[in-house]
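In line with agreed milestones, the collection of sequences with tokenised folds has grown. One record among many is set out beneath this paragraph:
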Amino acid sequence: MQRPSGAAARVIKKLEDTEHSQGNFRFAAIAMVPPLTPFFPAAYHTGFGHQFAIAFESADIVAAAFKNAPDLATARQRLIDALGKVAFDAQAQAGRVDQDTGWAYVGVDLSPAPLKDVSIGAAIENLTTQPIGSSGTLTAAAIITSALKDIKVTQTGYSGLMLPILEDSRLAQRWSEGRISIDSLLSYSAVCGTGLDTVPLPGDISAEQLSLIIGDMASLAVKWHKPLSARLFPVAGKGAGDMTELDGQFLVNATIQPLEKK
């Protein structure tokens, strides 16, 4: 069979690159992440099975709690109250499932995951009134995580702030503007989070460069004895300054930044 040439070949190549790159969505390097974490792709178990955990896409709850908050203490308490209500309701339902089915409920991961336009980046900007990546972002990250820890449900997994660049429209925008970097994401992870998540990278990044980034994440996890992961997203055929062309159900697009600022 004759292979297509010219424009048709370029279209096929682009589709293949996009499809292969989206496979990165299903892979992460993890450090200090315990079993029974419900967030994919870090989820695993080492026990007898027949156990379940719960996770939320609750960035909208954070955004509502932070909107027009007069001060940080009020914002924090609003988040505890609002997310706590949802968490306790879910835990009550989980207890009934546990009792009725024999599947053991192990806890809830309170990390407020975003979903495209339901943005944790926008929620943080509600609190700081500055673009995420500006001064105040680290404080907001710490407030979110400390509020989650004060919700007295049975917790498992990360239960911290998630900043997945390619799953959040506002984060993708700020990344494209150069306001967020790998180093800033790691600095936020020191007081919150889950590490590096769906970070778009040039397709020609070397294995050595990937290893160094993963090593920085792991060093931070070991230093603070906290669960972190790195779900890195090299995009085939794309370099610094290019826009990704991903079409996954849960993904948005962003401009790829250079690995090091000059």
In short: The two ends are 47 Å apart (CA to CA).
